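Would you kindly consider the sequence and fold I have copied below?
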Amino acid sequence: SRPATLLHGAGQSARGGAVLQRTLIAVELGLSVVLLVGAGLLARTLQRITDVDPGFHAEHLIVDLPSFPHVVARDSTVTQAFQAEIVPRLAAIPGVIGVTAADAPPFSGRSSSSIVQPERETAGGGGARDAAPQRDAQQRVTIPGYFAAIGIRLQSGRDFSEADRMGAPFVAIVSNSLAQRDFPNEPALGKRLKYQGEWRTIVGVVDDVHFQQLSKDVQPTIYTPVAQRRGAWVLSLLVRTASDPGLVAPQIRKVVGQLAPPATSQRIETMSTMVSRSFAEERYRALLVSLFGIIAAILAAVGIYGVTVRAVSRRTRELAIRSALGASARSIATTVMAGTTIGGAIGVGVGLVAARISTHLLAPFLFGISATDGATYVAIFALLGCVTLGASCVPAVRAARADVAGVLHGE
């Protein structure tokens, strides 16, 4: 009965320490869960954003935003002559495989909208037509070859041509979203819409394009040829290269500066950089929260290890007596890890509930996933489970290999 009495007394003295151990582990893991779930949701949001198709090919595409003196920029004859000369000059640069121009390239920060008014057949039929309600649309001015050069797919119809100029019938190309919105259940090709006070015939329908942010819905867009727009238009240049765009950028700047009137390249950037910058805020937010989450997980692992070592030292006498009574090393290790695992399970469970309650604050910053994304929660649960087991494994093994004779020498 003497060993049983010793085991009972040792167990009583260690019971209070086990409760404290589980409480500390639960608190550490609970805080880690909240941070890691937030980090996981934001990281998956960033992944979903980068997976969005912008609607064109951003690779190996340089955007040049030339700038003229104010007096020159207001002269339509001068600006049109510059644009007519610059395109073939840039196309002649070695390594350039395509050149085009537009007033507001995607992700350039330039954007404007206008009212469009589709023409529809009247209810009475008979070929009579009237104007439908006006709606807003993004507006873009381009030159022929724009869509092929930057990789926007032409769904139907044709691109602009050199024949689309003043004196010819006014034409427009519309995005798929505008075609579906203003001409539901019928092909938009060949239809007319009123834009900038003039009726224009739709000669083409193209894919939708993200102009500002990949995380935002595409907007209905109307494209018109610069040759059919009144006034002076200083268009941005878009140059497609066969290899590294950085090798071609200095030559572009040089060619632009050589033409008359003198123009300066206000900003030359690759389109990939511009697209990447559009979700810089999401990237920063995900990295910041992920950093805090990783630090919390590391601190939790260190804390669990320390708490487990402390708990083992308090239970040394109890574990030695168990070993003396015939408990195997595996049983001793399991006993040690059980206390840590129970505390970890409580902490993870409470943390998941707290994370579920708090993640509604992240909802406005999420894209493509919900705040209750199951895969994220399962991944965090598995990660912290591994952290808990790993941090408690070393103390448990040491406890199983303890010198039983030395511990019980004084008993």
In short: The chain is about 50% helix and 20% strand. The longest strand covers residues 113-121. The CA atoms of residues 72 and 78 lie 7 Å apart.
